[in-house]
Amino acid sequence: MTLYIGNLSYQVTDQDIREVLSEYGQIQRLNLPVDRETGRMRGFAFVEMSDDGQEDAAIDDLNGAEWMGRSLKVNRAKPRDSRS
DNA sequence: TTTGAGCGC
């Protein structure tokens, strides 16, 4: 499953996210989208995790939690638009 | 700062 994490601080790095999310399961993939033109983080992330049943606990725990001075928004990610 | 790429006619 893939987790969507929004409202991230610009200071957050992929390693920070790994640290936190690894408590709830094995991280398969991490994606931190940046604005293609400005190179800035877009303020959210996607974390694909092994389906071991703890992802929902991660959502419960982290959604609304304060992290790096911001309130996280954690959800199940929606599939990305594919452009065959 | 809230759903991912890339980017040509």
Automatic annotation (TrEMBL):
The keyword Cell membrane does not apply. InterPro entries: Nucleotide-bd_a/b_plait_sf (IPR012677), RBD_domain_sf (IPR035979), RRM_dom (IPR000504), SLIRP/GR-RBP-like (IPR052462). One of its GO terms (molecular function) is RNA binding. Residues 1-79 form the RRM domain. Keywords: RNA-binding. It comes from the Bacteria. This is RRM domain-containing protein. It comes from Acaryochloris thomasi RCC1774.
